[in-house]
């Protein structure tokens, strides 16, 4: 039996989510842009799904929800649009590649450091924003929580800094790993991006929430038939949106229970693993982290080798973000925290979902300890 500890890469659909998707597919072809009754049914289902998203992030206007294929597309819609209007792009050094890559094409960009605790340097952010011209537009991109370390960013303080300067500052939040694992409120941001497959919805689903303030200025970059208020042209994935809403609604209803369970699994795992491998250490252990995520450094053990050994034992984990873990370079996130290249190559990420059990945690720990010992012996 496979022990899957890589929920930050993707999760399996919940049975009720799969049922919602299948029931929608069974309704037959639904193009929400069509003028006939089948199109009207598609539009109604999308409206209901938007209501669910709004409720989950304390938003009040369903029209501000844009359905997308996930976090990467959502991030690109905002960053590419703001860059097109000449905005300066400001982001932390630990953002996801889907933020860093489009931001790198902007004419003006500032990178903000993070501390050893994984949190953005608020003083540096304030300094950068205070030196921007009053008539300038700025897009600040800060993830709600990091996919590799689980560190939760101080969004309230970031938002306060953004609002304190005289320039036109917009705050974009990548919530791909955060929604459903911590509480999120649209009050703090101008835009929020989310990937459904991180929360037991189908792959290829997600949303972008836009404040009225952002929607009024953001240029359209994905052009076509004008669906999703023109921000995401293309025929809407109605079954995907229905399944995404089902996943979000389920997690909202069971939020406290599920978060408590995830935290229990993570804490049990960390305690057991540190007992089995006493010289291991948890990256950003003292920081406020997602309840399901831990990044562990095994000094003297090549993480890629341990990863392969564990894969052979049917224990699945990761050596970084799934979007970059196939690249043979040290994690930029871990390097930004101050880890050496060698230390970064000694780290593995374990991330849990509500499908995981205490029995899986207890079974995996000795296998991980044995793999670490074997990897060290081959150095």
Explained architecture:
There is one protein chain. This protein is α/β, with parallel strands linked by helices and about 375 residues long. Helices cover about 40% and strands about 15% of the residues. The strands form three sheets. A seven-stranded mixed beta sheet has the order 2-8-7-6-5-3-4, sandwiched between helices. Strands 9-10-12 form a three-stranded antiparallel beta sheet. The protein has a two-stranded parallel ribbon with strand order 1-11. Strand 3, helix 4 and strand 4 form a beta-alpha-beta unit. The longest helix is centred in the last third of the chain and has 22 residues. The radius of gyration is 21 Å and the shape is globular. The two termini are about 30 Å apart.
Helix-strand layout with pairing:
Layout: E1 3-4, H1 15-26, H2 37-56, E2 65-68, H3 71-84, E3 88-92, H4 97-103, E4 109-112, H5 122-130, E5 137-143, H6 155-164, E6 168-174, E7 191-195, E8 206-210, H7 212-217, H8 238-253, H9 255-276, E9 281-282, E10 293-297, H10 303-312, E11 315-316, H11 332-336, H12 341-344, E12 347-351, H13 358-377
Parallel strand pairs: 1-11, 3-4, 3-5, 5-6, 6-7
Antiparallel strand pairs: 2-8, 7-8, 9-10, 10-12
Helix pairs in contact: 1-8, 2-8, 3-4, 5-6, 9-13, 10-13
Report the CATH architecture of the largest domain: 3-Layer(aba) Sandwich
Spatial order of the strands in the main sheet? 2-8-7-6-5-3-4
Poorly predicted runs of 5 or more residues: none
Question: What is the ordering of alpha helices and beta strands?
Answer: EHHEHEHEHEHEEEHHHEEHEHHEH
Largest sheet: 7 strands, mixed
CATH class of the largest domain: Alpha Beta
Q: Can you say what the CATH homologous superfamily of the largest domain is?
A: Type I PLP-dependent aspartate aminotransferase-like (Major domain)
How many distinct domains? 2
Strand content: 5-15%
Summed up, the helix count is 13
